[in-house]
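User: Quick one: structure for sequence A, then sequence B.

Assistant: Sequence A:
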Amino acid sequence: MGQLGTKDPQASDVHYVQALVAPDTIGPMPEETMLAFAQHGTVEGELSGDGGDAEKTLAEFAKAGVDVDELAAILQREVAASFSASWNNLMNSIAAKSVVLGQSEKRA
């Protein structure tokens, strides 16, 4: 899933939103996550515009045997598929509602 909803039931329902706050960014999230953040989320800092210690962290992953490039490719494919599915669901919902609205206009 490419959204900022929490998948781990042990984690806070706003964990990823709080952890991924960054300037000039937009991140999709489920409505329930957005409402939870509005209710009890906090912004305690934000990601560094220069990536912070990301390069060091990725180097540590690689040292531990993680193929960072392959992991990135997998994540990109999964996120793209998730966004595509969400977009298709949105378009189908709009089309279905348009049909219903068109039918109600014909009755009026």
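Sequence B:
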Amino acid sequence: MFILGIETTCDETGMALIEIKEDKVRILKNELASQIKIHTPYGGIVPILAAREHQKNLPFLLKNLEKDFDLKKIDYLAFSVGFRWSWTFTCFSHRKRICSKFG
């Protein structure tokens, strides 16, 4: 079974492709987009900037995963829910686009 995990709860945008076979779990690919440089001048995380960066980074990370893996093989999609609603909503808004790639 293959699972695509997506994380957008704070200032990092992450995706991981995981394979579970029998009782073994293996991370096949892990992508991360950092926002440290964007938030550093403000001395902390700026929610609206974080949400915009997630919007920009999610398609880029997904494209990187697609280079090495056929997304139609994915069985489950898992994504973060919590911490900041606006950031999590970014992940929800991309859900339909991501799922359409699964076929």
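Residues 2 and 75 are 5 Å apart (CA to CA). The helical segments are 36-39, 47-66, 85-100.

User: Thanks, that's what I needed.
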